[in-house]
Design goal:
The chain is mainly alpha-helical. 55% of the residues lie in helices and 6% in strands.
Length: 62
């Protein structure tokens, strides 16, 4: 996620979250985005296997 955002910013795309109220043009906004991305990654890793866990989203070969 962070690399995609970086590529978009390098191409001149401005990213602003309307629901979380942060702007990736500011250092505070980039920090907040990184924290939320890390939290989402941690939640995926903590998700149990099975029909409602990560394996259901990523597929059986992931």
């Amino acid at each position: 996620m962070l690399s995609v955002v970086k590529q978009l910013r390098e191409r001149g795309v401005r990213i602003v979250s309307l629901t979380e109220n942060f702007d990736l043009e500011t250092k505070e906004g980039r920090f907040m985005f990184a924290v939320l991305a890390a939290a989402a990654d941690g939640a995926l890793e903590a998700s149990p296997p099975g029909p409602w866990g990560v394996s259901a989203v990523r597929g059986p070969d992931a």
